[in-house]
Amino acid sequence: MTVSIRHLDQDFAVEQSEATEKLVKILCELLANGEEREKCLSAQILGKFGTSTAQTALAEALRDEDEDVRSDAVEALISAGKGLDADVLLWSLQNDPVLEVKLSAIDGLAIVGGTVAEDWLTKLAKDRCEDDVAWDGYGAEWDDWLDVQRKSILALGTLKCEASAAALLEAARDPFGQEVWPEVTMALSEMGVAGLLELASLATDASARVREHTARALSSAKDERVGEILRVLFADADPDVRVAAAEVLMARGEEADLAVLLADSEPQMRRLALKASGKLSYSKLETVAFEDEEETLRIMALGRMASSDIAKPDALIERIERSLRSASDAFVAALVPVLAKVETEAATALLSEIAVHRQEEAVLKAFIVLHGEKPSVDGLAVLQEQVTSAEQEIRLAALNSLAKLAEGEGDIADNAAVQLVWAVSGKLMPEAHDQDILDSAKEKDPSDLGSNGKGDGKQPRIQIDREGNVIEPQAPNEVVVEEDVVAEEPSAEELVAKVTAGVEPVVAEDVPEGAIENVEDLPDNVVAFPGSTLGAILNTEDEIEKLAEEPVDLGKKDMHFLELANELIEKKRVVPGRPDDPALDIRLLALRICGDAKRPELIDALVSALSDRQMQVRFAASQSLVHLVENGLELSEDAIERIFALPPENDVAVRAMRVELLGTSSNPEAEKVVTAALKDKTDAVSASALKVLAGKPDANIDVRSYLKSPRRRLRVTALELVSANSDVSNLDEIFEAAQMENGVLIPGAATCLRCYAQENVLGAMEQWLDGDLSRKLAALEVLNKYVA
After folding, report:
1. SS3 of 11, please?
2. Distance CA 129, CA 120 (A)
3. What is the pLDDT of residue 220?
């Protein structure tokens, strides 16, 4: 017997063998007598083996006292899909109060079928069956029967139980019941002819909601007569029903009259027509593009027109000219590729006029995209200008278009490549930005500021003392003599002498009332913090100790003062979506775009950027080069020598990528650098070196030893590397690595074990399950992932 398993998009099967039988017996014993966690994991694994011995053990586990074990056991039985016993499932459905167990049992009954199963499912679709079914009494906030009812209805559809159709309709029309029309219509759609007859009747029901559910339920029906019912619903008076019928028709691949859709009064119907892959006449598209009420639909119609043949270009240009004056930016942007499709002198002139008079971002971006698709000298000039735009979206679009042009041949392609090289090298500086961007960098002339920093002729700022009182400004007629206010700054020697001699510092006489003049005027509970380095030096140990012990108590007045002071703080203006350094942003965008480049000059520019002073530039350049190398690019020896000659790198990620780049060379000096990187203290660098050296036979690297490394990154890399090795002696080391750090690498270890012979892995599993509880749990988790 073979159990087919799919993992990581690859077929994987556990073959029945002597090792499998031994392992199943061990799991059955753990399921019967193990700890709770052992039982749950054993149940999950046994369901994946699906043998008769496993099914018997799982059926017995349905009566376990722990509800988690019962839930895992019934789900394991359903996942096996064979050998299910209807009586066993019915017992769990009737006697187990746990909702998850009941729902899984219903799934099993939908597989087994039979008269008894259909009868019970029909009963539960209509009633709670309180006398025969045990319900969880603790779920007062939610009635479990509501979920059981829905699941039972769907199960009856899966079983194609035509006899239950009347009961399902009765449950759906119950005025005191819950909303089950989606489940009922879905079940009817799977019941064959009898179900289709009921759905045909529901297609003319008085309730629009029922008709809509009917249309959507027909998406899974496989009868040829479904199309007739859908066409009736396609002509329904309710727009929601029409939309549902149209969506189902298109999903089923049946023909829907796109002309009717496009002429429908419901915008959603017209949107479906424009999204459909069918052919629409040019005249109808033009009508929608210039006459529809919904701008979104008009733009969609223009998009379809840009990919179709233009029937009457002169009439189109006239309509465009009439609509340009009042058209929105998005609409004009959608017009640009349509006009480019015309390729007449009038269309070219109109495009030039739009480019001159409509400078909005959306329109400009449309022209930039167009210039990347249709090379021209004028278009290249526009791209060269807009690559330094103040808007990031425009810069990105211009760089993308330049990259497309660089992929071609000729002078335009060469000039586009040169422009990209300049962008990567940082030679393109952005244009002047808006005033709100430059405010933070502009220096203000102190002579422009008047009294109190507010400028001549303006009222001074409000001054507030510690108590929150407003200090009145001096009257204009009160002139203060400069000699009385400005005192000569004492020298450092005089200041030291005054402090050591205990002389009080000189304080100006004209001090506002209420202000604190001397340190002695401070309250007892307030400590005078030194205002200079010299003051801090002159503090004695007792004063420092006092500062550390006596806290400052802030009262309501203090907090009010702080709130007022916070309002006076000038905040820096931040414009969302704009980088702080646009020049750097141009470089970073260009570096990432060049990650798909194949031109030698662009690769040379990337290598040159590795020596830039800014870490972001070095990171982006390294990332693009690694991407190119992984896609088959071979770096020249000159590039390797330039990388080797770079100064030491501080950033860990850049260093790791540099090691990967040097690892592609056979240069002895580069190999020495990679070998030395294996002993680096950072995980990323050493893991990169391990990955490079493991692929070189001359390096003599023992990958198995790194499975025991306390550094997770190295263990992950080692697991990836030993996956390509069929050495059976690696199995124990792989399992030991999986147990480290509370089993964080169990999924990776299980994936690694799939590369080894199953007989060897299952034989090792028997040994791993023979240990203490933590070892057993780790082995069970690895096995569960192994057969998942």
Report:
1. strand
2. 10
3. 85
How far, in Å, CA of 660 to CA of 673, rounded?
A: 11
Beta-ladder partners of 14: 3
Tokens of 450: 């008047």
DSSP 705: G
Amino acid in the structure at residue 602: L
How many secondary structure helices (H) and strands (E) does the chain include? 43, 4
Rg of the chain over all Cα atoms, to the nearest angstrom: 39
Residue 75 and residue 784: Cα distance in Å, rounded? 14
Positions in the chain whose pLDDT score sits under 50: 1-11, 432-454, 476, 479-487, 492-493, 495-523, 525-535, 544, 547, 549, 568-574
φ, ψ dihedrals at 4, nearest 5°? -80, 130
Q: Which residues of 146-167 are buried (b: 16+ CB within 10 A; e: fewer)?
A: eebbbbbbbbbbbbebbebbeb
Q: How far apart (Å, rounded) are the C-alpha atoms in residues 81 and 48?
A: 10
CB 618, CB 610: distance < 8 Å: yes
Residue 76 to residue 45: CA distance in whole angstroms: 8
**What's at 374, amino acid-wise?**
K
Global pTM?
0.73
- For residue 521, give the DSSP letter: G
Count CA within 13 A, CB hemisphere, residue 729: 4
Residues 504 and 389: their CA atoms lie apart, in Å, by 61
Q: What is the pLDDT of residue 443?
A: 44
Q: How far apart are CA 427 and CA 379, in angstroms?
A: 21
Q: Is 4 helix (H, G, I), strand (E, B) or coil?
A: strand
Q: Which pLDDT score is estimated for 463?
A: 60
β-partners of residue 470 are: 464
pLDDT at residue 457, rounded to an integer: 53
Each residue's pLDDT tens digit, 40-52: 999 999 998 888 8
In the structure encoding, which two tokens stand for residue 628, read together?
Answer: 């190119």
Task: Please write the tens of the pLDDT for every residue from 732-747.
Answer: 999 999 999 999 999 9
- Cβ neighbours of residue 603 under 8 Å, at least 6 residues apart? 594, 597, 625, 628, 633, 635, 639
* Side-chain-side CA neighbours of residue 492 (13 Å): 5
Task: Decide if 307 contacts 283 (C-beta within 8 A).
Answer: no
Residue 783 CB partners (closer than 8 Å, separation 6+): 23, 45, 750, 765
Q: Which residues pair with 44 in a beta bridge?
A: none
**What residues contact residue 404 under an 8 Å CB cut-off, 6+ apart?**
372, 373
Q: What is d(CA 272, CA 251) in angstroms, rounded to the nearest whole number?
A: 11
Q: Residue 526 is which amino acid?
A: V
Residue 421 has which token pair? 């090289």
Alpha-carbon span 699 to 132, nearest angstrom:
72
Side-chain-side CA neighbours of 673 within 13 Å: the count stands at 25
